[in-house]
Amino acid sequence: MAPAPDYLRAMRHLLALLIVFPVAAFAADPIEGTWRTPADADGRAGLVRIVPCEGGFCGTVVADMTAGGDRVPSDLQGMTILQGVSRQDGIYGGGRVSNPATGRSYVARLILQGDRLDVGGCVMAICRSGGVWSRVD
């Protein structure tokens, strides 16, 4: 029997790798990344990095930006404003979202639509959008 052509050997190796290391294990959740918040009354926006934590996702303020896009120092840097958020029926929720301006926190409700993330909070059964964040990376 003649040896298998090189492309067949390569396909077998690829198939073996996919069985041993499933692709899904390497794929990041679509919510992970850095997001830019809407600008406040002064034109400043925040950058929030969302990463896996606590069996869900957490978001931490990593920078503040001027209306011109320059990063500036801020007391909010390092503040965790999303905690314990998990994917539920096509939206993200179950955790808490904090409003740094008021210091209040709410049950989180995040709706991901491509590179836009509608971030809101709920009190009892009433939910309200806190603004739409844009993906930075």
Automatic annotation (TrEMBL):
UniProt signal peptide: 1-27
One Pfam family here: DUF2147
Keyword line: Signal
UniProt domain DUF2147: residue ranges: 33-134
Keyword Signal set for record: yes
Protein name, as recorded: DUF2147 domain-containing protein
